[in-house]
């Protein structure tokens, strides 16, 4: 939890809002699991419901045109464990990983545990030539890129949705340079207008592992996610995954999906986040100075706000905090950040609707003051 | 779950018996957690109850004389994840790990993920000279032992309790040869007469990480364990532990400990397992031929049964299965097993008391027949 005081509006938090978490359904699921299956759900192997969940995920991946013959599902502790296991398989000290900039900060930390060679491409530019230059250069330097990590839809932190064309480009480049793709789909169920296709659905070559999670659609604290891709790889990942899974919580998630109308829950979530995104956008238009820029949100949790370079990021954060609003500075989302990237992430997922508007107002006022004073 | 048919008595399973799992208390804990803390328990950081659990574990380690200034607690996914993280820190392809033979089979798998150099010492011989010879020889071969993994009390699979003297010897040898000790205490709360001291309590040098778990005392499927040792190491382990913990289940365990009289639960468990161990010993005395040997049980889950070398292990297993009883062959517990180690593990933890006796009877009859026929 971020430090918090009375009146602080925390736009830094990438958490679901409290009512988004179906805690009653989860509690009922555990009660039912315990009644129906007795001790079985509490033992090492967990409940037979785990099989149901894996079958359901397989059907889901099929529905999204992202299941190839020979694929399998591996349950993981959130999407991040999937990335960790792929790093363990594909990276060594010599090889490199290619990631977006900006990207999910925890993913950067995971990659750093495996290699010093982290190279990047611009998240929103969609410049396949630039990506290829990076792949070629890194290989020429003796550090071939073996893994490409991308957030494809409503990416953290930008909210960006990668075009189908660029997804195809990445698959082709992975094939050409013998790299493997880790597709992080953490937010992709939270679309506002229409579901984006998965990058994996464009991959006929089996070079993509899709990493999914229930963190944004049920609750982060469950730590239930999955990896979907070639069974050769999921088997290997499973061998390294020595935490023995999470049988009880997996059973709970399976019961919620079977007995608590998960589809209706997702529809409610989409409507709620769409409304929150719209409110935040309304506030951005209303309160930000014209020098600031952001993308309209199509889903997920975040707005990525660019501000003029004359505004010092450290001072912006400190002054905002004094005014009772917090955000995540842009430099957190870069592996090799300059001191100030003149951008920040605000989340519309957690604070109350009223606070979202008030928080943006406070932040806008601070930026205006700093522009006027600088 | 093992394959099972009507009438198969499964003495292979290292599971708690169904009534040993306080599933009502766990369900109530989740309900209460959800009512008291709302969404907080379901978010990434989990409930404040996690802090309570860590403080409680610290107090517990102090009570067992195993807390040094500068120690810390890291919550893990069972004891096994603790070992995995220590392997990741201490082992590379060149260095070696020293383990008991026989030892916990999953631990062997974890070590194999990190090194080919797995050396052993006899679990029950308590021969410090032999251990030192192994340490010296391995170092001379260019593969210094950096990690020593031991089950110290009611060890899996032997049930053996290491003497205080040998615990001291191991600490001294670790210091002399610059190795680190991973002490697996998975079963040490399940003592029948008196609690054995921890190896860590003899370590004034900070060379031991204690690995604990609630798998045997609450439920395996929770996947809640902890590592206790130097904070320098727990910090590093935490950096590699990229599954972000298991906030919801951690909160449940914390509530069970706070509100459901965990001490009384432990006392009931000890009485139940003591009774089960005694029943199995009674049956061993009654039904095993005089050529078979086993140690009297002082705690934990297992008896380790040695039988004459003329009995073929594969045939013993097949015939026993035909007679409706299953066990774990001894060779599973060795990293470099000969074809047959003339020993097997039977568990008194899972089957009904009636089945424990009947299972041993069936197994004894098969061994007697094979001895008579061979």
From TrEMBL, chains A, B:
<dbReference type="Pfam" id="PF00155">
    <property type="entry name" value="Aminotran_1_2"/>
</dbReference>
<keyword id="KW-0032">Aminotransferase</keyword>
<dbReference type="InterPro" id="IPR050859">
    <property type="entry name" value="Class-I_PLP-dep_aminotransf"/>
</dbReference>
<dbReference type="GO" id="GO:0030170">
    <property type="term" value="F:pyridoxal phosphate binding"/>
</dbReference>
<keyword id="KW-0808">Transferase</keyword>
<dbReference type="InterPro" id="IPR004839">
    <property type="entry name" value="Aminotransferase_I/II_large"/>
</dbReference>
<protein>
    <submittedName>
        <fullName>PLP-dependent aminotransferase family protein</fullName>
    </submittedName>
</protein>
<dbReference type="InterPro" id="IPR015421">
    <property type="entry name" value="PyrdxlP-dep_Trfase_major"/>
</dbReference>
<keyword id="KW-0663">Pyridoxal phosphate</keyword>
<dbReference type="GO" id="GO:1901605">
    <property type="term" value="P:alpha-amino acid metabolic process"/>
</dbReference>
<dbReference type="InterPro" id="IPR015422">
    <property type="entry name" value="PyrdxlP-dep_Trfase_small"/>
</dbReference>
<dbReference type="GO" id="GO:0008483">
    <property type="term" value="F:transaminase activity"/>
</dbReference>
<dbReference type="InterPro" id="IPR015424">
    <property type="entry name" value="PyrdxlP-dep_Trfase"/>
</dbReference>
<feature type="domain" description="Aminotransferase class I/classII large">
    <location>
        <begin position="9"/>
        <end position="362"/>
    </location>
</feature>
């Amino acid at each position: 939890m971020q430090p918090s005081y009375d009146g602080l509006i925390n736009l830094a938090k990438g958490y679901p809002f409290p009512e988004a978490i179906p805690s009653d359904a989860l509690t009922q699921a555990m009660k039912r699991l315990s009644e129906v299956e007795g001790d079985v759900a509490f033992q090492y192997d967990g409940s037979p419901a785990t099989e149901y969940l894996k079958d359901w995920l397989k059907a889901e991946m099929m529905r999204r045109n992202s299941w190839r013959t020979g694929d399998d599902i591996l349950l993981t502790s959130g999407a991040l464990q999937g990335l960790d296991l792929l790093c363990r398989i594909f990276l060594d000290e010599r090889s490199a990983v290619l990631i977006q900039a900006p990207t999910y900060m925890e993913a950067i930390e995971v990659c750093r545990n495996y290699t010093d060679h982290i190279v990047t491409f611009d998240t929103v530019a969609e410049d396949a030539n630039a990506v290829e230059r990076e792949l070629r250069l890194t290989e020429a330097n003796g550090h071939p890129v073996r893994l490409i990590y991308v957030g494809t839809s409503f990416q953290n932190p930008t909210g960006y949705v990668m075009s189908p064309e660029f997804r195809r480009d990445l698959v082709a480049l992975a094939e050409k340079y013998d790299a493997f793709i880790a597709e992080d789909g953490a937010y992709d169920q939270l679309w506002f207008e229409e579901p984006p296709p998965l990058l994996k659905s464009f991959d006929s070559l089996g070079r993509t592992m899709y990493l999914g999670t229930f963190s944004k659609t049920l609750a982060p604290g469950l730590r239930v996610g999955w990896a979907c891709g070639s069974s050769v790889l999921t088997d290997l990942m499973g061998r390294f995954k020595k935490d023995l899974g999470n049988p009880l919580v997996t059973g709970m998630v399976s019961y919620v999906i079977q007995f608590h109308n998960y589809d209706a829950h997702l529809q409610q979530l989409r409507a709620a986040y769409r409304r929150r995104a719209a409110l935040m956008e309304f506030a951005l238009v209303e309160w930000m100075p014209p020098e600031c820029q952001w993308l309209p949100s199509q889903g997920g949790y975040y707005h990525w706000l660019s501000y003029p370079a004359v505004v010092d990021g450290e001072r912006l954060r400190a002054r905002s905090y004094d005014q009772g609003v917090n955000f995540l500075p842009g430099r957190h989302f870069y592996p090799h950040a300059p001191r100030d990237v003149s951008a920040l992430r605000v989340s519309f997922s957690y604070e109350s609707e009223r606070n979202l508007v008030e928080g943006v107002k406070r932040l806008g006022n601070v930026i205006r003051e700093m522009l006027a004073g600088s």
